[in-house]
Amino acid sequence: MATYTIKNLEQITGIKSPTIRMWEKRYGILSPNRTETNIRYYSEADLKRLININTLIHHGLRISQVAQLKANDFKIQIEKINKSPKADQDLSSFLSALIDSDIDKFGAILNERQNGSDSSDVFIFNIAYPLYDRIKSLWTSNNLSDIQKNMACFVLRKKLYDILNQYETNTTKVGSRFVCFLPENEADETEMLFYLYVLKINNLDYNYIGRIPSPKSLLTFCNPQDSLLTGFSSSICNNYIHNFTTQLKNCGSGKIYLFHPQSISEKHSKLPSDIIEITSLSHFQELIKKS
What we know:
By secondary structure, this protein is α/β, with parallel strands linked by helices.
């Protein structure tokens, strides 16, 4: 069974380590074990309890009130919140399902949140994308395993394809399109699907061609008025990104949009100045509306 340091708990729940220690001492909410060198470590049960405590506090309870709840009352409160349509951006129930590697539960929660959303926009921008962003952050910090991350992204991709297929093509800019693709070594298309949704709701024409062996393969496909959309969902060598984007500029197309977890970082000072970096889904939405 997995164990966690107090730093892991902070990264996953967002609760600062000093606060966790204070809650332990004052309210006894967790009872960590200790190594032979007296370092705290926590079980999966501890982590899930802390996630649920964070949920209750997020929904208005004080830590002193939470600490007094009996086990059954604690469970009832959590279930009530998870079923509420006002759960919105609270991602705690998703994280609990991921820790348990329970794909059915994860999918059921996602369905509940979608059904409780006023529109696809609300679901995508307020729930699905923040969830994906959090999953990616936890995975890159080694707080989620590859299996847990892949499980979550599989469910999200299926949901995103279902939503995309509900929209009919109704482009407004004749002769102008986005050519959307992934680099050869990019294994996950989940993030790309979020950006395709933005293109869909803005009635922009696009061709999603999947992974390509190299930028040179675009030479016979792209037109000068086309925009390119591509990127990486995980960190990759900066020199590779620089060479990749330099080759894209030679494809004879128009604007080039790039998403990457290290966007607007000083590490990317070598990128060509006319590469348009995407920092988030809402940022891409803003860029599209301005273009």
